Each structure stands twice: as C-alpha cells, then as structure tokens.
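Methods: holo model generation. Sequences were used as deposited, without trimming of termini or removal of tags, and paired with ligand SMILES retrieved from the corresponding compound records. Each pair was processed once, and we did not select among multiple samples. The sequence and adenosine-5'-triphosphate SMILES for this entry were:
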Amino acid sequence: MNELLVTLDDLTVAFDDRPVVDHVNLKVHRGDILTIIGPNGAGKTTLIKAVLGLQKPTRGVVSLARKLVIGYVPQHLTLESTLPLSVKRFMMLTGRSEPDCQAALSKTGVGHLFNASVHHLSGGEKQRLLLARALVRKPDLLVLDEPAQGVDINGQASLYELIRQLRDELNCGVIMISHDLHLVMAATDQVICLNQHICCSGHPADISHDPAFIETFGTQVAESLAVYHHRHNHSHDLHGDVVEDTSVASPSGHQECSGHAHH
Ligand SMILES: Nc1ncnc2c1ncn2[C@@H]1O[C@H](COP(=O)(O)OP(=O)(O)OP(=O)(O)O)[C@@H](O)[C@H]1O
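and the model returned the structure below.
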C-alpha cells in the first residue's frame, strides 16, 4: 500500500449548528486520484478547505503526512485587471527559480506563453497556468477545485488526462472536485459522492448503479453514466449462450453508507 497522505476521521464542519460536512471518513494515498462529486451546496469546497487547513473542523480530525507539500488549484484565476502581469512574473511570485517555473509551464503545455500577459490567456490556458503554479512546488498532494471550469469539452478531456499524467510523473495523490461527471468517470480511480455525508463511494464504473447515487443525481444522469461505463459482466459459451463469469471482479472497494437518511 502506498504512503498515506491524508486521513479524515469523522470530519464534521457545521455553520450555525448546520452540518455541511457530516461525519466524513476518508483516506488518500500517494498515487490515488479521488474525485468528489455532489450537488451544489453539498459541502465539497468546505471539505477540501478542511484538508488545506483553511477551515477548522467542528468535530473530527484531519491528519496529514509529515512535511506534506500541497499544490492547490483554485476554480478561477482572479486578478486585478488593471495590474499588468506576465505569466513569468506570476510564476516567479512562487519564489521558485526561472528554470523551475519554465519547466512547470512546459509540463502543463503552456511553456510558450512565458512572456504573455496573464490577462490575455484563454480559459483553458489560465487553468493550465494555475496547474503549473501548483506543480512548481513539487507537491505530494494536488488539490483541485473544479479544475476544468470554463474550459471547452475537448480542453476538459485533455486537462483531466494531463492530471493523470502528472500523478504518474510526480507520484502524488490527487483530490479534485468536479461537476463534469462523464469526464470524471473516465479519469479517476475513486469517486466520492458527497451530500453532506458520503452517500456512496467506489470505482466510477460501479457508482452509477448505486441507489444513493441515483437518488442524488437522478435516474437520467445515472443511466447515461451506466451506459457509458457498461462493463461486460458475463461470458458466452460455444453456443453463444450467456454464462456467469465468476472471474469478473465485483465492484472493487465499493462502499455504500448505511444509517444515514439520503437527501
Ligand atoms: N463560511 C461559511 N459560513 C457559513 N456558511 C457557509 C460558509 N462556507 C460555506 N457555507 C455553506 O455551506 C454549504 C456548503 O458549501 P460548499 O461551498 O462547501 O458547497 P459545494 O458542494 O462546494 O457547492 P458548489 O457545488 O455549489 O460549489 C453551503 O450551503 C454554503 O452556503
């Protein structure tokens, strides 16, 4: 088992006695890609803020591996539009060397924009710049809050592919929030469906069959994902008749909570 990077132990965050993250238990290891999905207001951002140390738990514990370096990619790049700022300057604000900054930008496919103004970048280029800024710290853990927001559908697929490649290259763990269910399903190892508490979790191909998932996202979404991720779970004999295939793995690590009322 790879090194354990993050443990959430019974994490609860409440605002005015209203729990928005409720009794969440979670472990992230080096090499994991874990995606948090859930409806608006489900507590996704609050959960990652707790991991980043920006939100104090009301109850429970967030434990991080010793000397854990976290690279954070926010949803948007918000900058004062009147402030002239080049990509180079933006990257150098991290305090890293110019060659390191340039290498990180090349890794995320925007090395050619070193001298461009950040204000002139497209949505996809901005996201790649934010990713480069997170990478230059050589993180053990990448935390991304809807990294593909404002990026077109082709750009989204390549951004998720890039995140996978970076995970392989850096051997880091990845926690990300996403709303792009189809793309997430293709690019992640484990999905957590959060609606204050963890409704269900597991391999993306299996989650879409989960009653808790269907309850949260509706039958239409679940069916479209189930078709998209259909896995052949049986074999055929010489006559073409269907035979049970016991060698097909059952949903790996698939868990569903019980004892909670699903919203
Ligand atoms: N500092 C705060 N004080 C009070 N309420 C807060 C605070 N931060 C978040 N909330 C509330 O907590 C709930 C969860 O918010 P959060 O941003 O974590 O949801 P989310 O799942 O990320 O939503 P979205 O998908 O819409 O971004 C919301 O109802 C929000 O209004």
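The chain is about 30% helix and 25% strand.
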